[in-house]
Amino acid sequence: MPIDILMPALSPTMEEGKLAKWLKAEGDTVTAGDVIAEIETDKATMEVEAVDEGVLGKILVAEGTEGVKVNEKIAILLAEGEDASAADAAASAPAAAPAPAKEEAPASSAAPVPAAPVASEPAEDPEIPAGTPMKSSTVREALRDAMAEEMRRDGDVFVMGEEVAEYQGAYKITQGLLDEFGAKRVIDTPITEHGFAGLGVGAAMTGLKPIVEFMTFNFAMQAIDHIINSAAKTLYMSGGQMGAPIVFRGPNGAAARVGAQHSQDYASWYAHIPGLKVIQPWSAADAKGLLKAAIRDPNPVVFLENEILYGQSFEIPDMDDFVLPIGKAKVERSGSDVTLVSWGIGMTYTMKAADELAGMGISAEVVNLRTIRPLDIDTVLASVRKTGRLVTIEEAYPMCSVSSEIAYQVQEKAFDYLDAPILRVTGKDVPMPYAANLEKLALPNVGEVIDAVKAVTYTA
Amino acid sequence: MAATKRTSSGTGAKAASRSRGAGDNSAPAIAEFSKEQELHAYREMLLIRRFEEKAGQLYGMGLIGGFCHLYIGQEAVVVGMQMAKKDGDQMITGYRDHGHMLAMDLDPNGVMAELTGRRGGLSKGKGGSMHMFSKEKHFYGGHGIVGAQVALGTGLGFANKYRDNGNVAMAFFGDGASNQGQVYESFNMAQLWKLPVVYVIENNKYGMGTSVERSSATTDLSQRGASFGIPGEQVDGMDVRAVLAASERALEYCRTGKGPYILEMVTYRYRGHSMSDPAKYRSKDEVQKMRTEHDPIEQVRKRVLDANWATEDDLKAIDKDVRARVAEAAEFAQNDPEPDVSELYTDILL
């Protein structure tokens, strides 16, 4: 029976890739372990090895094809004695059942009555001058460009971390930086987060401007003493004499199917600390404008990225020097019925929910916090005073979360404007499970956001 | 004492240059000091001694709060290193830091006023005994977390190399900190990248109340860099001449781009770990023996008198001068006002 060769997933978050090259031709004999093709993702080029023996009966996806979905049939392998007609038959059969993980969560429990679309419009970014041309950029490219631009601008800026140089970044965020800036300024470290974070802070105390990349913030728990005790507190303890102009950056929060120890969102941990600035970008524009600002900032900045967002594309202003202000939220969508406040990957659910809500006749205003500390509560309050209702959306645990803090401040400062209790949609209060179905349950989804909005608008 | 072991790993520093620990009088010959060096060391060590005695007194009067870790007994270590260093070389240490600041020429008034939490303190009263800094004098703290200064000090060395400025960082830490994991992470990076850092292990024999023997699987701390190929030597940290000689070797080694160097200064603290430590883990005899036989200041005093470089009256005059300087600092520290309440919310971010 012919064997299907499927497009492999090469990382936990890969959904599609380019079939760059076939290294075997139709009719070639293949043994297990032979490299049969090369596949490119946005992060890397990987070789695909044969798992079974046989003859390559038919190639279904030509080399050079982009956007090949994971688990799509790319070739047919014939067993001994089978002929090409078997390959043709196999090619037309549906691919093996894919993993069940991809189905979208039900959008909401009920929305039977279609309503007239309401005003909930994408808002302009006041930080971008009117008429600025836009271009498409992934978050990954935006982060890399931000670092490269700042390194060109200031010789005191350097980047260090695990695999940032020769490997070009574990997630390819530092791709090309070694070539341009050399090994003095793009530094591969040993796998010793505590040590190299401390080294970075020491260098920063002398006035250098390190960018310390953590392969993920989950590993930064090993280094958190230096982030907090050494970086955040020194300016105060020295009576203002000695600070640490340093950026700690890397992916934070859940990726996909990497389990409890690699899936935590640390925003509220760092946001708790006076002396730190904490940024959690969502879009490519957030990533670029805020990382450039973070590098220039004379204070220690914790910059919390997200692996799932790295490959996503957004419109970004095509400007020489696009810098966003730290501590300023952005109204991504204006609306009148409810305020949705989110940040980082939480914005993904939030923007989809706002779209669906518009179709149900509920006009949601979406505030993208961009910075967690200092918190732009004024922008949140202005929105809540307009809508009277607030739902916050984040992937982190609920207890002592950023949502908790926003809810506290809003009840304190806009109590009389609230027409409903503030609700929060968060990750569940459990260590992240591995099983696909449980992981999905542990994370927020669009349906939960819509349900929360219905609750606070009394339309459930 | 493990003074018979070799110095590590094919470097310039060989056993011949290695002096023995305190309590062992058979150390190899040490370069004699000139009269000027002896008198300089005497005055500097005495300033630290008298300053710390005064700090202990003010603590007892309730004028200094919190934790207060005195340097009495260890003065030769920091003074010897100070005599070896060049302008621009940095120091960083843990919380037993008053002596380092005085050796780095920080104003005793500012140090004492920081201990009393006053606005004229080096950190405006916001840091306290364990947290003082001076970019101007290249003193990078004053750190309260055991071992943190080792990684930070490695970063100072990194910055020197990045800037190619010829400076060397001196990272001081104790025998207790020498078991911290980040010390070895730092050793690895410093040797890998050949960073100019002298790691100065001030082995005063007790990490709080636990002796080196009870906390450390190997007690020759000078060899803690051996698996990274970092040379190390054990130095009689009670003899300022031995400290200076070893420090000059170490600083030269680092300054010429060979990488980091470890000096284990075998020393002793006469007081408890902090003011609140009754030090019941060691005998009075042990302390008394160190004070009478190995005191770093008395050693210099005896040599100066023996050489007729000063009379008893000359030394008394120095002592009087130093006491006056310390009294002035104490006076300032008691009369300087507390920080303005507006300082509560300043210096958090730039």
TrEMBL record, chain A:
Region (Disordered): 89-138
Name of the featured protein: Pyruvate dehydrogenase E1 component subunit beta
Main enzyme class: oxidoreductase
PROSITE patterns: BIOTINYL_LIPOYL, LIPOYL
Documented EC number(s): 1.2.4.1
Domain Lipoyl-binding: 2-78
Residue spans of biased composition, Low complexity class: 89-121
CDD domains given in the database record: lipoyl_domain (cd06849), TPP_PYR_E1-PDHc-beta_like (cd07036)
UniProt xrefs under SUPFAM superfamilies: Single hybrid motif, Thiamin diphosphate-binding fold (THDP-binding), TK C-terminal domain-like
Required cofactor(s): thiamine diphosphate; (R)-lipoate
One Pfam family it belongs to: Transketolase_C
Molecular function terms from GO: pyruvate dehydrogenase (acetyl-transferring) activity
Subunit text: Heterodimer of an alpha and a beta chain.
Record keyword Signal present: no
UniProt keyword Ribosomal protein, yes or no: no
Keywords: Lipoyl, Oxidoreductase, Pyruvate, Thiamine pyrophosphate
InterPro entries recorded: 2-oxoA_DH_lipoyl-BS, Biotin_lipoyl, PDHB_mito-type, Single_hybrid_motif, THDP-binding, Transketo_C/PFOR_II, Transketolase-like_Pyr-bd, Transketolase_C
Function, in words: The pyruvate dehydrogenase complex catalyzes the overall conversion of pyruvate to acetyl-CoA and CO2.
Catalytic activity: N(6)-[(R)-lipoyl]-L-lysyl-[protein] + pyruvate + H(+) = N(6)-[(R)-S(8)-acetyldihydrolipoyl]-L-lysyl-[protein] + CO2
Automatic annotation (TrEMBL), chain B:
Record key words, sorted: Oxidoreductase, Pyruvate, Thiamine pyrophosphate
Domain Dehydrogenase E1 component: start-end pairs: 44-341
Region annotation (Disordered) ranges: 1-27
InterPro entries attached to this UniProt entry: DH_E1, PDH_E1_Alpha_Subunit, Pyrv_DH_E1_asu_subgrp-y, THDP-binding
Catalytic activity: N(6)-[(R)-lipoyl]-L-lysyl-[protein] + pyruvate + H(+) = N(6)-[(R)-S(8)-acetyldihydrolipoyl]-L-lysyl-[protein] + CO2
Enzyme Commission (EC) number: 1.2.4.1
CDD domains: TPP_E1_PDC_ADC_BCADC
Coiled-coil segments: none
Cofactor(s) required for function per UniProt: thiamine diphosphate
Biased composition annotated in UniProt, kind: Low complexity: 1-23
Pfam family, one: E1_dh
Function: The pyruvate dehydrogenase complex catalyzes the overall conversion of pyruvate to acetyl-CoA and CO(2). It contains multiple copies of three enzymatic components: pyruvate dehydrogenase (E1), dihydrolipoamide acetyltransferase (E2) and lipoamide dehydrogenase (E3).
Subunit structure: Heterodimer of an alpha and a beta chain.
Official protein name in the record: Pyruvate dehydrogenase E1 component subunit alpha
